[in-house]
Design goal:
The chain is built from nine helices and ten strands. The chain is of the alpha/beta class. Helix 3 packs across helix 4 and helix 3 runs parallel beside helix 5.
Length: 288
């Protein structure tokens, strides 16, 4: 059993978000304790991803406040929150395609605020080891399949040494075996003391990891409680979530195309090589 009796580390109060006349979030309240894991479910369009974007600073709320580690961060930029330990992943991984897996992770570690070059190197290796990506450390990101792209997205987040990790549908598109590997990784993160909020349509994954479930619909929280005592409203929310994602998959299958990875920005300056060689014959050092 993982203890979750710590202080509330991340909280949101009275969050509202409007895009013009469209109300996306209405009076949403949220709190997560140190080392707690919270699952967030709901149908497509419920406002889940928008809410995560507000928590990390990608969007500002139209009303309400966000508090992280006792400090009001409502207007703080996303980079500042990330350096403080509030980190998220995205539904669609977007690595630097012309960089190796290791380089992608090193970028995150080196820009997390407190790490020098050597510390960033060690953090990168630890993240890759935890997510099972060491064997592909020197492969270019553009050559990765879906599972490895998701692992790389998670590795980049872990390399910043997060205190709170927000996961956005990281289990989507994975097979049962791949999803089981993901659950093992997230359970290890909990053992390391990282608080986790996880948006997911695959509810049985959340039940293996989380202490609490939050159900959202139409921009509001309709249920919030221990997974063992989920209400009828929460169950209905989960069913609508499953139906909506199934419909989305059917629509995509009729005119799907391979996902693309954005090219490396031209303005991105080359990184200095790590002080020690990579454990797998380094593509990085070969270019220097």
């Amino acid at each position: 059993m993982i203890e979750t009796d710590g202080e509330i580390i991340l909280a949101a109060s009275g969050i509202q978000k409007r895009f013009g006349a469209l109300s996306v979030l209405e009076d949403v309240n949220f709190g997560i304790r140190e080392n707690e894991a919270v699952g967030i479910v709901g149908p497509n369009g419920a406002g889940k991803t928008t809410f995560l974007s507000i928590l990390v600073g990608a969007h500002r709320p139209s009303a309400g406040t966000v508090t992280f580690m006792g400090k009001d961060v409502t207007t703080a930029p996303a980079a500042e929150r990330c350096r403080g330990g509030l980190v998220r992943t995205h539904q669609i991984p977007r690595p630097f395609s012309n960089m190796t897996v290791f380089e992608n992770v090193y970028v995150a570690a080196a820009n997390s605020g407190s790490a020098n070059r050597e510390e960033a190197y060690e953090r990168s290796l630890d993240a890759l080891q935890l997510t099972g990506m060491m064997a592909t450390a020197n492969r270019r990101a553009e050559a990765l399949g879906l599972l490895d792209r998701k692992r790389l997205e998670l590795s980049r987040a872990l390399a910043t040494s997060p205190k709170v990790l927000l996961l956005d549908e990281i289990g989507g598109g994975l097979s049962d075996g791949e999803a089981a590997e993901l659950v093992d990784i997230i359970l290890e993160l909990r053992r390391r003391g990282i608080a986790i909020a996880w948006i997911e349509h695959i509810v049985h994954l959340l039940l293996q990891v989380t202490d609490r479930l939050i159900c959202m619909d139409a921009g509001t929280v309709i249920a919030d409680g221990a997974k063992s005592s989920a209400s009828t409203r929460a169950t209905g929310c989960c069913k609508r979530s499953a139906r909506s994602v199934s419909a989305s998959r059917r629509a995509r299958s009729s005119h799907s195309s391979a996902p693309t990875v954005p090219a490396r920005p031209r303005c991105f300056a080359p990184l200095p090589a790590p002080t020690r060689p990579l454990p797998v014959g380094s593509a990085w050092t070969a270019r220097t």
